[in-house]
Every structure is written in structure tokens, then in C-alpha cells.
Amino acid sequence: MFDKLHIFLGATVADAAARPLHWVYDEKKLKSYIKGKKNIAFFRKNRSPFYSIKTGEVSGYNDVGQVMFKTLAKTTNHKEVIKLFKKNIVKNFGPGSSYWKNLSLRKKYKKIKWKTAMKGPWIHQNILETIKNIKLKKTITGGTKVNESDGYCASLPFYFSNTSDQKTKQIIRTVANGKISEQFALAKLKIIDLADKGDKDPINSFLRKNIKNKYFKNVIENIKKVKRIKSKPHNFVVKKFGKACSYPGTFNGAIHAIITSKNFKTAVIKTIKAGGCNCSRANFVGAYFVAYKGIKGIPQDWIKKTNTAKSIMKLIA
């Protein structure tokens, strides 16, 4: 079941590396934080303006994937995966959790002048809706208000133990119930799969394979947009398509990092420097390069700095 777990490790380490500088949208502030610093990955001091957790811990995006990973470690019955996954989502993010304790502040953040990052993790809109829908016993429980990376993060460990599109779509919609969230999540997985299978140019291969596929029409158009400005600086491209968490911007920024980088480390550093929701982009970039180049591409000291890496490493074949 876990023969491809190194790919999820890539996403996890990349997310943890970017996390201390997560959601820094102010370019001047970000530049001042990293100026003169040799190491900007695993930044010692939290600089996220919204929430503060210890360096080495992962963002709420990757944590959704951690919940799926733990779920799969407890059951080999795919029929039971979604049921247990929902239960674990509520346990990890719901009432009694550190995420839930910060919910009152989470609800206020748009209404106040945010001065200090709150202590503890940040619960995402998709997960808030998911917990509500699970309690309402809805068949499809994912959030519908935003198109973000939660569905991709949830499905990443599952996809490489299953590879059924139909079942993967069910996992995605368990936490992100939207057409856009599903399409871009599945596109990421298929690009990563091509990289894992030894394709020399996964992005272009994905384009060729799906050029007439109506399902991926929006994805294809966005990849073409990125390729047209491939030569532009990465920060410029990310700013142009959007630094925020939503698709297609977060997908486009990650694609540019992939097609303009040679390895895991340079791609992740580039992603961090671009600011904004670097964690959502890092989860794709990190997984891609480990699939493409192997686990040896992850710096060993980065793995050691990632708190959740130990439990993943124990099960890597």
C-alpha cells in the first residue's frame, strides 16, 4: 500500500520548509525577513502574519494529507477509508482540537486589523464546512465556498495506493466538493504519476495526453498560459496568476516553479520566496520532484527538521 509513500514525504517536507513564511503577502516585509539569510527554508522565527506554530510542523493543507496517511495505516479496506477518514478529520480538526480552539479568532480575521499572529494552527474554510457537513450526515461532505488544495492534499497518499480516478474523486470531494477543486487536484496527481513512471517531460506529456479531454480543458488552458511566460521571473508569474490559495492561481504558480527548476531544493526555495500561499504550492512542487528525481533529492537535514517525517519514513518501502 505504501510503496509510493516517498512522494507524500516530498509534499510534507516541502510544506514544513515553507510553513514559517506562509501567507506573507507583503512583498517588502518578505524581502526584509529573508534579506541576508542563507537559509530561508525552515525559517527559525514564525513570520506568518495570521498564525504561529513551531518550525518543523506542517500547515493545515498538508495536515489533511497526514490525516489520510494515518487513516490508510489503520485500514486496508478501501470501502472503509472514507468513513474512517471523516471520523479522523473531525478528531484532528474538530471540537477539542488545537485547530478548533482558535476558531473564534479564525472567524474574526476579516473583520479586524490583524496585528499579531494567533498561537496555534489555522483551520481552513474547506475543513470548517466539511466538519459541519459530516455532522449533518451529508453524503458528499466537502466544502463548496472555496477552490483550494485541501482535496489534493487529502488524495495524495490515497491515489498512489489506489490509482482509481473514481475513488480518488470521492476522496477529493470529501473535503473539497467543487468541480474546479476536483479537476486541478486530479491533474496534479496525474502529472506526478507521469513523473513517477519515468516520463522525461511530465507537463508536456500531460498536455499531449489530455489536449482533447474536455474534463481537463480548464487545466490545459492554464498550463499553456504559464508556458507562454515561462521566461519571466518566478515572483512575477506567481503575482500575475495570484499568490492566494485558490485555483487556478496556486496551480499555475507551482507549474512555473516546476518547469523552471532542476531539483527539489531549488524549486521549494523559489516557491517560498514568491510569498503568499507558498504551502499550497509547495505540496505540489515537493511531491512532483520526489516522484521525478527520487527521495534522494530531498536534503537529509530537511527531513530531520520535519516533525511528521519520522512516522512516514518508518513505512517507506
Architecture overview:
The chain has 317 residues and is mainly alpha-helical. Helix content is 60%, strand content 1%. It has 18 helices and two strands. The chain has helices at 5-18, 27-34, 60-74, 78-93, 98-101, 103-108, 125-135, 150-159, 165-175, 179-196, 202-210, 217-228, 234-241, 249-259, 264-273, 278-293, 300-305, 309-313; strands at residues 51-52, 118-119. It has a two-stranded parallel ribbon with strand order 1-2. It is globular and about 50 Å long. The model has no long low-confidence stretch (mean pLDDT 95).
Tally of separate helices: 18
The average pLDDT value, as a whole number, equals 95
Tally the beta strands: 2
- Alpha carbon gyration radius: 18 Å
Gross morphology: globular
State which percent range the strand residues make up: under 5%
Strand order of the largest sheet: 1-2
Detail the poorly predicted runs. none
- Element-by-element helix/strand order: HHEHHHHEHHHHHHHHHHHH
* Share of helical residues: 55-70%
The helix-and-strand class reads mainly alpha
Distance between the termini: 9 Å
